[in-house]
Specification:
The complex is a heterotrimer of chains A (about 230), B (about 650) and C (about 250). Chain B is an alpha/beta fold. In chain B, about 40% of the residues lie in helices and about 15% in strands. The chains are: A mainly alpha (about 230), B alpha/beta (about 650), C alpha+beta (about 250).
């Protein structure tokens, strides 16, 4: 097999989707873990320290490049797959199969993914771009234990005062949940888990993971908007 | 006229001796020789694969959309082989003997012995190809028993043995296609044999997608086109199974042997109404575990489960204590017919008997499993549940199929079964080399007459198909082709091709231009009714004579009033069917003539005039120990040629399964 | 079983040949017995059409006992109709009640072009098998059948995969028109047996390459194929093929 076949053969493409997907699944745990620090009820101290650590450590900054590569590969490959697969049945059915045999979210990964992509643009514009490049008037400098850092907590609180932003984030988290429920188990199937004992476990863990992660993310803007933190 | 070319010498040495002395074709010459194979069932696919492997240029034809769909795929129960893996006394000789005896001494000893010899190679070959036969926990092959024998020699893959064997052969065939040795023509139907200077040199085939006629040359032509059971309209054959290829060969001079020998299989799902298009077999292997019965009381309308044990007549166990439910097919079928005709039949039509699994579910499997699990004094429900699990693994797909068709659950209520046309032992006459009396024209598998005599034992059809294709034809065809290496491929512009194609085209045009009122299907149904009633499980001279007249009239009506829609130059399934039914009508007449001529009862052929006082079949060896090979001699006219059958090793005795 | 008669409305895809654009035609059918098979119901309709001088509906069918894989109708939005683990020919009219409307379409996929009405060309499957769906063993080469013991679980799993009848319902059901269930069933069948081991890697790679070449889509694990498969081929086989393919690809020399 040539290297290029990873991106041209049907199973090669699946593997790229699965590996990048699994990578993103791990990233989401880290991301959710750090963000969960907002609930420490310490005015954002723990959260800001964690965010600063992520932003200032060389290894993590390098990993970030990998992360973006992963995300873009996942997006581009995913969109290409969606369009290519749609072109394989030029004449469609009069009576669609619908849910007779598969779940709507399994069939809608392209749509769910696209919603997530739009959300990412918004999300990056809210946090990543200000923190890394252009700054923001609410992104003040603070000093904790003698270390200067961005007050990301403040930016979050500011951002989530807008109701439409909170709604957009919650919608994105719902999409994320469905995307993950299919994606989690699908990724394991793609990398070759064919044992039904493990597959049953993976499916249950996948559903649990998807719900917990999505719920955690969704509760962040909600908590801030409602003034719980 | 008929030279069976049986090699001299002792029976068990004939095949070895033949292989040692037959002519060979060297590899360079094989590449120059072209072979046409019609049909891609077990015989055709295995022959195409084996000959392709040898280096011949093979062209294979099938009317289905893929060679994998040939009807061998539907065989359920298994394939026999004299492996004696069970240490129960099996041997090549016993398989040979059982087959000759099971065939009621109307098969050729030398052919049958060769079949038994190569049976062991078939299993080896299939396992090497990846055929997933059933296995024991130790990883070795499992066997089951089958009707007509007292040893366990049947290899199987659940209830789908035919499928697995055909897929094996199909894969071997596709491998040769990939290697360029075989060219595959699917959705093509052979419509005539092309004869050049007295030898078969090609075929005319019709492309069923666009209706075009095509000419194909071959140094030899192999017909592997299966049986003609569909002459009865209702049978366990596939809808497309037909006699056309064999019939065209017959009209070109190949004699048709023992056409009346039809196997009526005892365990099929009964007919439910006029709409019925085909009958479904329930594997004979079910008789291992099911007991056949009817109520002791005539016209008993109670539900099966309401009839108490002492009011059930296990008639096979009663009449044939030694073999019980495992008597050969012909015996079991006639016994069912006898009970139903006498008014003991069950179901709405009264044309069915019960096949009941409860006894063995509980006593055979349930108790064994309970013993394994250490359950003491298990109740009936537990035994049923445990038994069901075992039976599910053995025949689950058959039980599911039964339930889909009838809407009844056979684990709970007994299956209703009735005999149905299943296999035709008759076919084109072939010699020991599988060549018909037309030079260069071979016939393999169910399409020929050679190995099963008047009745085929269960699990022997798959064996014969693969034996012919994998292990016989690769040797015997060389013996003919060795003399053909100088023959250059004949261009298909040759006048013989021209004329044959014109005759085929004329016939199609005639059919299309009848523009009558009755559908092809309606003629087929009427033919089937005549055949089933007068040339079916029991036959008599009067009925057969009537049938011949009726068929002749039907033929006239067909050729003056059939309606075929559509046109020639397109996909037209009605036209395809019309050609086949026209041939079935002619065959039907010959079958009745043959049945009339054979005034004895043997195997599947039961003449009411020839029975013992107890109603058992009576064979007449002094008069009828011959193969009846019919030569076509013009419309409704045949000449009979007899090939005497000599039994030097398996001395004929009256078959007894009591 | 209680039986009953029914009247139905059929909406059937009619297409004269591959180049015709095709359209739906509506046919009423009367007095259909619940004991008939679905194809026998079509037979009845066809007999009527012929008597009326119309062209009967062309459809693939042969064994009519659920094993040859020829029949291929997409009935009311599901390949092979409403029953689980079933082929069109084994679907019986008990599944319907008086007054129902039944829409019948051919398999739809670019790789399965319509030949006429409900008949499609599935020769792509044969070509995928040609690419490696076999064990290269010439006739006569085999060792004794019991020379290699095979773990029963593997033998059973190989059998379960080999039960595929090549009908193409998996492709018809898949939103991506992927043939991966078909390909994976064959790769699994042979990979699970020791006899299939020598060609294991090339088989997986070549069959997938051929599948792609034939224009089937890429699998996204929706599971629709498994749900409609008449022989209940499991999508575990797809996972196995994914693994086989990557192991083969990763260890290949070039």
């Amino acid at each position: 097999m040539k290297w290029s076949e990873l991106f041209t053969s049907s199973i090669g493409k699946k593997w790229v989707m699965a590996l990048t997907g699994l990578f993103l699944i791990i990233f989401l745990i880290v991301h959710a873990g750090i963000n969960a620090c907002i609930w420490a009820n310490d005015g954002g101290v723990m959260f800001n320290k964690a965010a600063h650590f992520m932003g200032s450590t060389v290894v993590i900054r390098i990993a970030e490049i990998g992360l973006f590569l992963g995300i873009f590969l996942h997006i581009i490959q995913g969109l290409m797959l969606e369009f290519q697969n749609r072109s394989k049945r030029k004449k469609g059915y009069e009576v669609p199969m619908g849910n007779k045999g598969s779940k709507w979210y399994s069939r809608s990964m392209g749509l769910l993914g696209t919603i997530l992509l739009l959300f990412f643009i918004l999300h990056w514009w809210h946090f990543w771009v200000p923190a890394r490049f252009i700054g923001h008037e609410e992104l003040t400098e603070i000093e904790i234990n003698g270390v200067h850092m961005h007050n990301m907590y403040n930016l979050m609180q500011y951002t989530f005062q807008e109701l439409w932003v909170v709604i957009a984030y919650v919608i994105a988290c719902i999409s994320l949940c469905w995307h993950l429920i299919h994606g989690f188990q699908s990724a394991f199937r793609t990398v070759g888990v064919s044992n039904s004992k493990y597959m049953a476990l993976i499916q249950n863990v996948g559903i649990g993971y998807s719900i917990i992660i999505s719920l955690a993310f969704a509760m962040m803007p909600v908590s801030m908007y409602l003034g719980w933190v | 006229m008929l030279d069976s070319k049986i090699p001299a010498g002792k029976l068990e040495e004939k095949w070895v001796d033949y292989k040692g002395h037959c002519k060979l074709v060297n590899p360079a010459n094989k590449r120059k020789l072209e072979i046409i194979i019609v049909g891609t069932g077990l015989a055709g696919a295995s022959a195409a694969a084996a000959l392709g492997e040898l280096g011949y240029k093979v062209k294979a034809f099938c009317f289905q959309d893929s060679p994998r769909r040939a009807h061998s795929i539907a065989a359920q129960g298994g394939i026999n082989a004299a492996k004696n893996y069970q240490n129960d006394g099996d041997s090549v000789f016993r398989l040979f003997y059982d087959t000759v005896k099971g065939g009621d001494y109307r098969a050729r000893e030398a052919n049958v012995h060769r079949l038994a010899e190569v049976s062991v190679n078939i299993i080896d070959q299939c396992v090497a190809q990846g055929v997933p036969f059933a296995r024991e926990y130790g990883g070795l092959l499992n066997n089951r028993s089958f009707g007509g024998t007292q040893v366990k020699r049947t290899f199987y893959a659940a209830g789908q043995t035919g499928q697995q064997l055909l897929i094996g052969a199909y894969q071997a065939l596709e491998r040769q296609v990939a290697l360029g040795n075989v060219t595959m023509y699917s959705r093509h139907e052979m419509l005539d044999v092309v004869m050049v200077e007295g030898k078969a040199r090609g075929i005319i085939a019709r492309n069923l997608v666009n209706g075009e006629l095509e000419r194909h040359f071959g140094h030899a032509v192999l017909l592997c086109t299966g049986g003609y059971g569909n002459v009865f309209y209702l049978s366990t054959n596939a809808m497309g199974s037909n006699v056309t290829a064999a019939w065209k060969a017959h009209k070109k001079g190949a004699t048709f042997a023992n056409p009346c020998f039809t196997q009526i299989h005892p365990t099929c799902i009964p007919v439910s109404g006029d709409h019925q298009s085909k009958l479904t077999l329930m594997s004979e292997s079910l008789r291992n575990d099911g007991r056949i019965w009817v109520p002791k009381q005539k016209g008993d309308k109670r539900k099966a489960n309401d009839i108490p044990e002492e009011e059930r007549d296990y008639y096979l166990e009663r009449r044939y204590p030694a073999f019980g439910n495992l008597v050969p097919r012909d015996v079991a079928s006639r016994a069912a017919k006898e009970r139903c005709d006498a008014g003991y039949g069950v179901g709405t039509t009264g044309q069915a008997v019960y096949l009941d699994f409860k006894f063995n579910l509980i006593n055979k499997y349930g108790k064994t499993e309970a013993g394994k699990l250490g359950i003491e004094n298990p109740d009936i429900e537990t035994l049923m549940r445990l038994g069901k699990e075992v039976v599910k693994e053995e025949y689950g797909n058959l039980f599911d199929m039964y339930e889909k068709i009838t809407g009844e659950n056979p684990y709970e209520v007994p299956m209703r079964i009735y005999p149905a046309v299943h296999y035709t032992m008759g076919g084109l006459w072939v010699d020991y080399e599988l060549m018909t009396n037309v030079k260069g024209l071979y016939c393999l598998g169910e399409a020929n007459f050679s190995d099963h005599g008047a009745n085929r034992l269960g699990a022997s059809a798959l064996m014969q198909g693969l034996a012919d294709g994998y292990f016989v034809i690769p040797y015997t065809i060389g013996n003919y082709l060795a003399d053909e290496i100088a023959t250059k491929p004949i261009p298909t512009s040759h006048e013989a091709f021209e004329q044959t194609e014109k005759a085929v085209a004329d016939r199609i045009n005639t059919l299309m231009n009848i523009k009558g009122k009755q559908t092809v299907e309606s003629f087929h149904k009427r033919l089937g009714k005549i055949m089933w009633e007068k040339c079916g499980m029991a036959r008599n001279a009067q009925g057969l004579q009537e049938a011949i007249t009726e068929i002749q009239n039907l033929k006239k009506e067909f050729w003056s009033d059939v309606r075929i829609p559509g046109s020639i130059g397109e996909m037209n399934p009605e036209l395809d069917k019309a050609g086949r039914v026209a041939d079935f009508i002619e065959l039907g007449e010959l079958m009745c003539k043959d049945a009339l001529n054979r005034n004895e009862s043997c195997g599947g052929h039961f003449r009411e005039e020839s029975q013992t006082a107890e109603g058992e079949a009576e064979r007449k060896d002094d008069e009828f120990a011959y193969v009846a090979a019919w030569e076509y001699a013009g419309e409704s006219n045949w000449n009979l040629h007899k090939e005497e059958l000599k039994f030097e090793v398996a001395k004929p005795t009256q078959r007894s399964y009591k | 079983m209680e039986h009953y008669n029914m009247n139905l409305t059929l909406k059937v895809w009619r297409q004269k040949n591959a180049s015709d654009s095709g359209k739906f035609e509506t046919y009423p059918v009367k007095n259909i017995s619940s004991e008939m098979s679905f194809l026998e119901m079509i037979d009845v309709l066809n007999e009527e059409l012929i008597s009326e001088g119309k062209d009967p509906i062309a459809f693939d069918h042969d064994c009519r006992e659920g094993i040859c894989g020829a029949c291929s109708m997409y009935i009311n939005g599901r390949p092979h109709g409403p029953w689980h683990a079933n082929t069109t020919c084994q679907l019986h009219m008990r599944a319907y009640k008086d007054g129902d409307t039944v829409v019948i379409e051919p398999w739809r996929a670019n790789s399965f072009p319509v030949i006429k009405d409900l008949v499609v060309d599935r020769s792509a499957f044969d070509r995928i098998i040609q690419a490696g769906g076999y064990i290269s063993v010439n006739t006569g080469n085999a060792v004794d059948a019991n020379a290699i013991a095979i773990n029963k679980d593997n033998a059973d799993a190989a059998f379960a995969a080999a039960a595929c009848i090549g009908c193409g319902a998996c492709v018809a059901a898949c939103k991506n028109s992927s043939a991966l269930l078909f390909v994976s069933a064959k790769v699994s069948h042979l990979a699970l047996l020791p006899q299939g081991n020598p060609e294991r890697k090339t088989r997986a790679m070549n069959m997938v390459a051929q599948m792609d070449k034939e224009g089937f889509g890429s699998c996204t694990n929706t599971g629709a194929c498994e749900a409609v498969c008449p022989k209940e081929i499991s999508i575990e086989n797809i996972a196995r093929l994914n693994r086989e393919y990557m192991m083969a690809g990763a260890s290949a020399d070039k």
